[in-house]
């Protein structure tokens, strides 16, 4: 049995991590049984990133490599039917979701005054009160530096939201009137679609990208459709 080591449930979702939610979604979409273990720190992960899996005592990190490994074992139950062009579009959508929209999400959660109190409580709320402030402040300063070095942290808040809006509009256009990103049936890229868009729509995030996504029938119905199909037992904190 595969064990997914992940940050714990939050806001009525299995996890507040877009990558953790992507991996669980992909496993459920592929009908591969798994159990979960909640972790709070990255130290035990082979790449110091969450999520990672444990399988027969072996650890493997990074959702892209984890999924490649599982496809070798179980076959590709989601994307085998896709044309080369659909695969290419799926690949580019996945990168937009996981590399670009996720960076905007992380920056917005950690660096904006309106969202930091919720993020702080969610990420550090279980730490004893006497240490909480210091640990959260040091972590936020470290995060700010990472964001600055990676480039995004050099932009203004409205510029960062405009980057996210351009991405989310492209995802909305790709969906169009289809139920899933590549047509009538879910494909692998929908795991990333739900993993990221649910964070914008179903968590108490305050930002222009969330406002846009919640107001879009195409995007909000997509997230509701994915949630109802793959996570029916979870009750959203944000309706
Ligand atoms: N490409 C990785 C990204 C995973 C990732 O960045 N996870 C975040 C949490 S959402 C993390 O562990 N960051 C490192 C840290 O917090 O120190 C994947 O697909 O698994």
In words, what does this structure look like?
The chain is α+β, with helices and mostly antiparallel strands and 239 residues long. It has 2 domains: 2-74, 3-Layer(aba) Sandwich (Glutaredoxin), CATH 3.40.30; 84-229, Glutathione S-transferase Yfyf (Class Pi), Chain A, domain 2. 57% of the residues lie in helices and 8% in strands. It has 9 helices and 4 strands. The chain has a 4-stranded mixed β-sheet, with helices on one face. Strand 1, helix 1 (18-29) and strand 2 form a beta-alpha-beta unit. The chain is globular, with a radius of gyration of 18 Å. Glutathione binds next to helix 2.
Secondary-structure topology with pairs:
Layout: E1 2-6, H1 18-29, E2 34-38, E3 52-55, E4 58-61, H2 63-74, H3 84-111, H4 116-124, H5 129-150, H6 157-175, H7 189-201, H8 208-215, H9 217-230
Instruction: Look at the structure and give the mean pLDDT.
Output: 97
Helicity range of the residues? 55-70%
Number of strands: 4
Oligomer: single chain
Main sheet: strand order? 2-1-3-4
- Major sheet characteristics: 4 strands, mixed
Whole-number tally of structural domains: 2
Q: Treating each run of at least 4 consecutive H or I residues as one helix, how many helices?
A: 9
Q: In the CATH hierarchy, what is the architecture of the largest domain at level 2?
A: Up-down Bundle
Query: What is the element string, with H for helices and E for strands?
Result: EHEEEHHHHHHHH
N-to-C span:
34 Å
- Poorly predicted runs: none
Structural class: alpha+beta
CATH class value of the largest domain: Mainly Alpha
Q: Measured on Cα atoms, how large is the radius of gyration?
A: 18 Å
Small molecules in complex? glutathione
Molecular shape: globular
Strand residue percentage = 5-15%
User: CATH topology of the largest domain, anyone?
Assistant: Glutathione S-transferase Yfyf (Class Pi), Chain A, domain 2
